[in-house]
Amino acid sequence: MGLKKYAAVQADDCILNVQWAGDHLCVTPVTGATLVIDKEGEITSALPDHGLGNGASSATPDLIATCGFDGRVRFHSLPACEPVAEVKLGRSVIERVVWSPDGQHLAVGFGKNLLVLDRKGETVATFGEHQTSVTDAAWNPKSAREVAAVSGGGARMWRLGATEPFAKFDWGGASLSVAWSPDGRWLVTGDQTASVHLYDFNRDYPLHIQGYETKVKAMAFSPDGKKLATGGSPMVTVWDCTPKNGPEGSTPSQLQFHQGDVEAIAWSPDGKYLATGDILGRLVLSANDKPVSAFQGENNITSLAWNADSTLLAVGDGDGLVVVFQAV
What we know:
This protein is an all-beta fold. Helices cover 0% and strands 54% of the residues.
């Protein structure tokens, strides 16, 4: 298994996130236009920016939602990128938006509220009770009506049509990111402190994992939900989530493939490979806890995304460069 450069494009600023939408790649920089790239590596559209800064966008195969510092959410069709709707929510910064698994609802962190919009931009739910501003959201891959939001020191799990969270867990500190395992069993948060916190839906049980060298800056579940990879320091830690008690009491795999702090992690959809990228520009592809390929770039890697059939890997860096690699 190796990586071959397939295409490269230059955005205006550091890459916030890259995401595949079918055969198209959506590239969102911190400032400047969000780019849409076709399967040949050509830029087909440049979507308007959001003033002083963009938030992380989210795409379905036929619709991309962008957001940012102007308090707006914009919808454009894919691949034509024609305007569909624009919603002005207020003055709060919108850091990210996230589509539900069925592509019918969009989660938006707006101040201390989590809003859910439909495909026309209409608000269908407003969930409050968050201690501080909502920093991230994740949908249950097994239920397109369940969504989790994190803010200062905790998570709330909501169900569309309900007014109270159906589950929650709290702790001190500030939660920055959240992910829901593909099998629906686990919710994991990455925090400002050097720790991750998991909620086991099977047991209605919180699990706190501490002892990291730095705060956790990247985390990703394997496609089958059996493994959780986390990064922040040069070491990538991979936890086994299959036992009855999950990672509790187990010894994780520790992958020492990097010299710089790891800030981007992505499993290939077929589950065979784990891609990790660090602040020194090193990209490593591993399988079964062993490196199989590597590439050294010039700038810190900020975002990684595989396409649906695991043949292409998009890599965004701190200088606005996006390189698409072909798995060969």
